[in-house]
């Protein structure tokens, strides 16, 4: 019997692999791939190995530039490539894409590089961000735009952005998100009590959390008693993160509850009437997909990623980014009409089932793997 082709996921954090790539990894395993994961290991090791995946601890440094740490990571990844000789490396985000591509030089491994979110560097317009955008485009063209390699994005806007960086259209594949478990996340009745909105995600200014706090304050000042749940943690490695001190201060304001990290996200949507994500840019936001699966209407910004899930006046309401008044008005509109919430929530659930289910996304990604997999496994020169 021929050996199973090996698929290596390269991702900075084990928790991110479990929260965002597990459905497609399961689908790949079911399709016959031997699945390996190279990542920072924190608390996710046992969960990864229980799935039957092979774990390779690799240290990634986020939030600062360290040439020594970068070189160490490249050599650690190279040792993984040499040891397992994967057919395909699925690199998740820009840093793993660059480092794994350098580590794989000399091999025949095919890379599927997921350029997710295009966050801080592509949202801000500082000189540093412009230089980084130029460098990222140059590196992607040199390392990825060759052989059978492809870049994987989650929405058409990100495809257009990569093309503007000089990446060939035939190198870019659009698959919307990483899938949501619509069997586990199901519609639940609205809770009793005051109308509650929930924000789920890392507490970053790029995700609009400060704008949301200002909108909540505006509503409370008008006498609109909206409750707000914040489900997420700060991310010190991200320059856009708010501080823990700031979040603790918010949680002492009337109507605001900080839940921190929540393992069972369905419990958040059981407590909330409305999902809100006033982000500046997304790939395809998992928080909105999970809210949609639970039948919750959404308020989001009219930006890439968000508008793929929160379709204006169909599954939610869209507002301009950084618009405190518009965000508050949209929340108030939904809060004042149960009929509108029911209509948008039912359509959101249908969209999650039809377009974004874990089964559908897993099938699409597996078909991509099978199309790209070489006849023989890759080898690394020594």
Please supply descriptive tags for the structure shown above.
single chain; 382 residues; Rossmann fold; 2 domains; 7-stranded parallel β-sheet; 16 helices; globular; disordered C terminus
Gyration radius, in Å: 21 Å
Largest sheet: 7 strands, parallel
Dominant shape: globular
Sheet-strand content, in percent, reads: 15-25%
N/C terminus separation: 28 Å
CATH superfamily of the largest domain: Glycogen Phosphorylase B
Specify the structural class.
Answer: alpha/beta
CATH topology assignment of the largest domain: Rossmann fold
Give the count of helical stretches.
16
Domain count: the total is 2
Mean pLDDT: 90
Q: Are there runs of 5+ residues with pLDDT below 50, and where?
A: 376-382
* CATH-scheme architecture of the largest domain: 3-Layer(aba) Sandwich
Encode the helix/strand succession as letters: EHHEHEHEHEHHEHEEHEHEHEHEHEHHH
CATH class of the largest domain: Alpha Beta
Helix content: 40-55%
DSSP strand count: 13
Strand order of the largest sheet: 3-2-1-4-5-6-7
Structural features, described:
The protein is an alpha/beta fold and 382 residues long. It has two domains: 6-179 and 358-372, Glycogen Phosphorylase B (Rossmann fold, 3-Layer(aba) Sandwich), CATH 3.40.50.2000; 196-355, Rossmann fold, CATH 3.40.50. The protein contains 16 helices and 13 strands. The protein has helices at 14-20, 22-30, 45-50, 67-84, 94-103, 120-123, 127-143, 156-164, 209-221, 244-251, 266-271, 286-293, 306-309, 324-335, 338-355, 358-372, and strands spanning 6-13, 34-40, 54-57, 88-92, 110-114, 150-153, 172-174, 196-200, 227-231, 256-260, 274-277, 298-301, 316-319. A seven-stranded parallel β-sheet has the order 3-2-1-4-5-6-7. Strands 10-9-8-11-12-13 form a six-stranded parallel β-sheet, sandwiched between helices. Strand 11, helix 12 and strand 12 (298-301) form a beta-alpha-beta unit. Helix 5 runs parallel beside helix 7. It is globular. It starts with 5 loop residues before the first strand and ends in a 10-residue tail after the last helix. The model is unreliable at 376-382 (pLDDT under 50).
